Amino acid sequence: MPRRFLTTSIWRTGAEKTSLLEFLFKIELFEVGLSSFDRSKDLIKSLLLTEPDRRPTIREVMNNHWVAQHNDVPNTPLGTSMFFTTKAWDQFREMFRESLQTKRKEHSNVPTLMTLDASKNPLLIKRKINQKSNPENNSHKVL
Length: 143
Hints:
Elements: H1 3-25, H2 34-47, H3 58-63, H4 65-68, H5 80-83, H6 87-103, H7 122-133
Helix pairs in contact: 1-6
């Protein structure tokens, strides 16, 4: 599979999931200031260090200015349980079904697999030969 196709496919899947989540939970993306960005970048770099002894502890992470400034969580009720019983859930399921439908292949484009007898796989041929010459010592069985 070409790398370009894989990247596009993964990006598209992520974009579709993001749009579904925005629809469901009315998520608003927020802007982060440049000073906050630098602090977060420094924290993330320190968390990604390969040597565990050099990484910050959980206390250090929680005391980091960038993390500490986001500790205030608004007291908003979570509407997840109500959401799953509403009309929005039906709309979400339909959108998700349509999204999956676009990923399905047409039957004319699906490759047909070769039977094992018609296969020219060198490893399979070697196993068949070994099985014929030593049937009692062989733990593998060729299908």
